[in-house]
Structures are given as C-alpha cells and as structure tokens.
Amino acid sequence: MSVTRHYDREFVRTFFTSPTAVDGEEDSAKMLRSAGQLRGLQAPDVWVPDNEDATAPNMREEGVENIIDVVANQGAEFPGEIHPRVVWHRESPATRYQGFQQMLEITDPENGAVEHIDGFVIPEVGDIDDWKKADEFFTIIENEHGLAEGSLSMSVIVESGEAELAMGDLRDEMGKPSNNLERMFLLVDGEVDYTKDMRAMTPTGELPPWPELRHNTSRGASAAGLIAVDGPYDDIRDVEGYRERMKDNRAKGMTGIWSLTPGQVVEANTAPLPPKTGSWLLDVGGQEVELEAQDGTQVYDGDDLSLEADGDGGYVLQAGGERLELDEDELTEELLDRTAYIPSMNDIVDSMEEFEAAKEAGKGAIAMTQAATLVIDGVEVEVSKDRMWDEATYQAAQTPITLFQDVYEHRPDQHEELEEMYGADIVERATAVGN
C-alpha cells in the first residue's frame, strides 16, 4: 500500500511552543504576541500556542481568549502553520471534554481565528481508540462550525507506552469509513511524560535519551505518511548538545524537533539544510575531527595523531598509542579508511545534475570521485575515493534537496536568508534539480 500525504508540508523542522497566558503580567498574551511576530529563520515551521503544560491551569480559560485574539490579529501574517495545543488525557473524560470545549471556542468563525488555524495538537493520548475519540471531536467541531471535514489537522504527542504501541495500529486505521484519521499530521515525542509513564530512572535524574522511542516514532510516521518530531531539549544553553541530538535524529529519519526559544528555532531551521561548504573529517581516536581547509589542502592540526616520513620512502603514523610503519600505498589506504566527506549544497546539486545528464544519455550508473590533499605534520598525502551512483544513490542524495525545496516553497519569508547563505545561483539550481 502506497502512503498518501494529506497536507502540503513534507518536512517540518521546528515545533515551537508558547505559553498562551502568563500570570502576573499586564498583558498575559505578551509571549504569544511576540511569537506571532517572528519571521525568517527565527519563525518556526509549526507554531504551537500551548494551552496545556506551558500554561498554568488557572490561566487556561484566559489562554483560549488570548489564542483567539492573537491569531485573529496576527495569524494572516505568520509565515508558518499554527496548531494550538489543548488539554487532553487518555484516562480523564473530564479533561477530554475540556479540550473539546477549547477547540470548539477557538474555531468558532465568529471569533475570527479559525481561518488561520491549521489544526490542533493533542497531548497525553493513549491507545488507538483514544486517538479516534479525539478525531471524532474534530469532526463534530467541523460540522458544528460549517468547516469542511478534515480541514483541521490533528497532531498527537506520544507520551505513554500506549501511544507508542498505537503508532503500529495507525496505518491500518487511517482511511476506514468510521473515522477521519487521514487528518493526522505530526507524531511528536514527549520524553518527559513518557519517562514518567515508563517509570524510568537514571542516577542523575536526567531524562533517558530514549533512542528507541525516537526510532519508533520515525518509523510510525513513515509507515503512515506522517511527520515525526522529537521532544523538547530543555538545556537551552547547550547549543552543541541540541545540534548533536538533531544529527542523531536525522539519521533515524526524524527531521523535526521541539524548540523552546527563538534561538533554538534558528538552530533547528538551519541544521537539516545542506551545508554551504563541504568539509573533510578525519577519525582520530574514535572521534571525527573536521580538517581545516588551507590553500586547497585539508590540514589536521592536533596532537592525537602524527605522521612523518622515514627517509626510505616509507612513513610512520602514530595514533592512540599505536605506531604504524607504512609504505605510500598502505598510508593512503589507512587514511582513506579514516576520512569521510560532508558534501556541500553545491556538491550535492553538481552530483545530481551529473547523474541526471548521464541517465539522459542512457547510463544507469556512473562513478563520482572525491579527492583531497591531506596535510598531517607537514606531510602531504593525496587521497581519493570513487562512489558508484545509481538510481538508488540518487534518490538517497535527493532527500536533503527535497527538504530544501519544501522549505523554499512554503517559507518565502526565508528566501532572502537562504540566498545570502548559498548564493542566488545555487538556490536556483537547487530548486530546479530533481524536478
């Protein structure tokens, strides 16, 4: 069965939550108003006015009023999608009813906000029957307000073992006449409540990394034609940790991540995009070290690896306490095994265009060569590697370009920044290649 997507966005990089009402402030909606003014790389792909965990229970009624006010007045100009988060709980009918009432009020056409609302985020879901309860509320709301059925998308936060298992049922349930689950959009991990539900403990009290949950959510999204988003990374000062988390997620097929600050939004918006310049990496003691580009060479400037010529045409390579005596061919092979290349946007576009031209000429596969001059302790070593490109390789390389094209199509407010980042020529070629 092929997967059919029911919405415009194929990728979501950023899921940004804002409290809907802040107690003790003269303007309780100040953070909503501020978020609604974000533009360019500071503006998320999905903005989530959060009337659940981010807003105190005694402020949620006012939070609904603030959502309506801010979205009605600022929603038309906001460049991303708007998906408020309402209250819900798999074990509490009263809480589910409160969430229904919140959605009903926010989507009332007389309030002027619904035309800018793309959907709602439902937290604390349970098994697939609970998902269908939420979906039924969406259908009732759409009929009550004269909206087209399925016009409001539904995203859920996976915060329990029940919800994790439910992702395996979703593919079979979508499309049944008894529900409108085709409205599903995002599967979002909520590691904090998931940790509580799983009764998990760590010695420091920090959250477990939950790679299994992130893998399962990415797999569930792929199987059902949805988009997977990781949960919040709450150490907002740990920029490098945030980047590493996103890098690990992308290797699982999970592009999106929760953002708690505009700074995290910028990081999450830019991290999945192909880099402006390519870079060579060298494995030193199990760690990948980025080499420094100098005058057409790639220079290692560290103390954990050394190289010298022995005067007889051979070389001595020392790394991690290991001393290797190598001839020229052996040294080249050793360094090839230790190197990797991260292609730039231009590299990817060049390779795709070259393969497209070869395919047009009737070739099914071609060899692409990557070459560099490595410099270690002043010793230069030429390395090169060939990679065979066939249709499967082309399709795999196309993913970051497809992401870029999706961003360029849906986020015109970022065009200027993207052209500053890559150059207008590269942007033009990147938007055309593969189409």
TrEMBL record:
Return the InterPro entries for the record. Aldolase/citrate-lyase_domain (IPR005000), MS (IPR053484), MSH_C (IPR059088), Pyrv/PenolPyrv_kinase-like_dom (IPR015813), Pyrv_kinase-like_dom_sf (IPR040442)
List the cofactors.
Mg(2+)
Which keywords label this protein?
Magnesium, Metal-binding
Describe the location of the HpcH/HpaI aldolase/citrate lyase domain by residue ranges.
Answer: 115-256
Question: What highest taxon heads this organism's lineage?
Answer: Archaea
Task: Pinpoint the Malate synthase H C-terminal domain residues.
Answer: 280-395
Q: Which GO terms describe its biological process?
A: oxaloacetate metabolic process
GO function term, MF aspect, one: catalytic activity
What is the protein name for this chain? Malate synthase
Query: What organism is the protein native to?
Result: Haloarcula vallismortis ATCC 29715
